[in-house]
Specification:
It comes from Sunxiuqinia elliptica. The protein has helices at about 1-10, 15-20, 30-45, 60-80, 100-115, 125-145, 160-165, 195-210, 225-235, 255-260, 275-285, 290-300; strands spanning about 45-50, 85-90, 120, 150-155, 175-180, 215-220, 245-250, 265-275. It is α/β, with parallel strands linked by helices and about 300 residues long.
Length: about 300
Amino acid sequence: MFNKMLANLLPYMPKKLIWLFSKRYIAGEGIDQGLEVSKKLNEKNIEVTIDLLGEFITSLEQAEENKNQYLEIIERFTAEGIQGNFSLKPTMFGLLIDQEVCYQHIREIIAKAAEKNNFIRIDMEDSQCVDIEIELFKKLKKEFSGHVGLVIQAYLRRTLEDLTDFSNFPSNGYPLNFRLCKGIYVEPKQIAFKDYEEVRKHYLEDLEFMFQNKMYAGIATHDKFLVEEALKLIEKYQVPQTMYEFQMLYGVTPELRSSIVNRGHKMRVYVPFGKQWFNYSTRRLKENPKMASHIIKALFFRG
């Protein structure tokens, strides 16, 4: 209850105060800050996935603006030789306003990435978006086989069934490429597992299915237990290094991240930036109220 109260109050605090916490997890407001963070990660033998912050827009003008920003980001990051790719949220491009406009915007972005021999990851959003985003991915995968991937969420009860459906989808010479995460959106128990251990169990079940079916796995977790269990599955199925990578958020569990890199496994860090950082931070607080007390400690005890 206390954490929920804090989470509801923090969005009304001064942005400068919230930034003291957020700057650990967000590269900054502009492309230059994203480039700087990405270069430093590359120097540590870590690749990146770049994400422009913003989601659930209210106008198609915003969708057009976001598309143009992504085209600029792809141009800048590839010109600078950054080792990494790009992630995007379909609701930034009008998914819940006009699905065809959204598709055309994302198609143009993926075409730009393909021109640069790069890759776009379509993020999975809350349950109202899941079916639409899966169909969007399938449509784009047929045209841009090796240049587009999707996020799947282990806490959704439907995920293994979705993966089974995908196993029959034509890959056109390129493996299906999924980032597997636990899932962060607040969903009812009818469609999402709620128990911590239950989510872990299904995460590993989904990951094992991916390895068994030769799908490329982005193992996105900061859970040391899941990392160790994933490594056991990699060994069990003799998964080549070209078919998996570990993924983490910028600023989270750096020690665990380094230990994975030091063991010779590929690591990719999700680097978010943009002017919408405040909304991103406060929304994540509401989705995960337990973070609120940690923020207060960070603000007042670690400056």
